[in-house]
Amino acid sequence: MNANDVVRQVQHLFGDSFEVQIKVEDIIDWINESLMTIARETEYKTSTQTTALYGPTTLGVDLPVDFIGEKRVTWDGTPLNKTELTALDDLGALPSDIGPAVSHFYFWEDKTWLYPQPGTAKPMLLYYVAAPTLVGDMNIPLALPLHFHKDIVRMCMVRARELNEDWDQARVLQNEIDANLGKTRDDQQNRGRETFPVVRDDPADWMH
């Protein structure tokens, strides 16, 4: 499904194929809003940023332009704990200290900072939730998994119903969206859980 398909379906469902009340530009805005909402709610799109050198000459590293939220930060392969700038004093050293083992990371001014500041240059790896590609070419397929495509139409229809003050219909559609996105979140969490085989008694051990 591409943006043209979404526009066509929304116009058909709303009964406004001639843009009397809803303009195509409105629907495109709703599509982009929906893409971002789904990315934030389900965290379906992830990426990594590797900074080859992070040492005394590098203070903070700019966050990726598509950054939504972090999942994990490592320095030289070691996972770091997240902290806040205002909590650094409680950790027992100053941000400018160089030498102690890096133990934490924090965000400030759209940058990732390490704490304490490392005295050697080693790689920092940021695992993060990424923003989707927004609509540019109307003919290019939407940049999200297929099972979200109908949700994009529903989310646009919520905005259309709200614009038309059809509050009950908007509420019904929003409930469907919330249920679908919630199921996706649950599926992703369960997918990451490991399963282990059950070790059972060998019948040969007790048949003698």
What does this entry look like structurally?
With 208 residues, the chain is of the alpha+beta class. The protein folds into 2 domains: 101 residues, no CATH class; 84 residues, no CATH class. Helices cover 34% and strands 19% of the residues. The protein contains 4 helices and 8 strands; from the N terminus they run ααββββββββαα. The strands form 2 sheets. The chain has a 4-stranded antiparallel beta sheet, with no helix packed on it. It has a 4-stranded mixed beta sheet with strand order 2-7-6-5, with no helix packed on it. β3 and β4 form a beta hairpin. α1 packs across α2, α1 crosses α3 and α2 crosses α3. The longest helix is centred in the last third of the chain and has 25 residues. The C terminus is likely disordered.
Give the strand line-up of the largest sheet.
1-8-3-4
Tell me the count of domains: 2
- Please report the total strand number as a whole number: 8
Form type: elongated
The average pLDDT value, as a whole number, equals 86
Could you spell the SSE succession in H and E letters? HHEEEEEEEEHH
| SS-based class | alpha+beta
**What proportion of the residues is helical, as a percent range?**
25-40%
First-residue to last-residue Cα separation: 65 Å
Helix count from the secondary structure assignment: 4
Strand content: 15-25%
What is the makeup of the main sheet? 4 strands, antiparallel
Kindly provide the radius of gyration, computed on alpha-carbon positions and rounded to a whole number of angstroms: 24 Å
Low-pLDDT windows of residues: 193-208
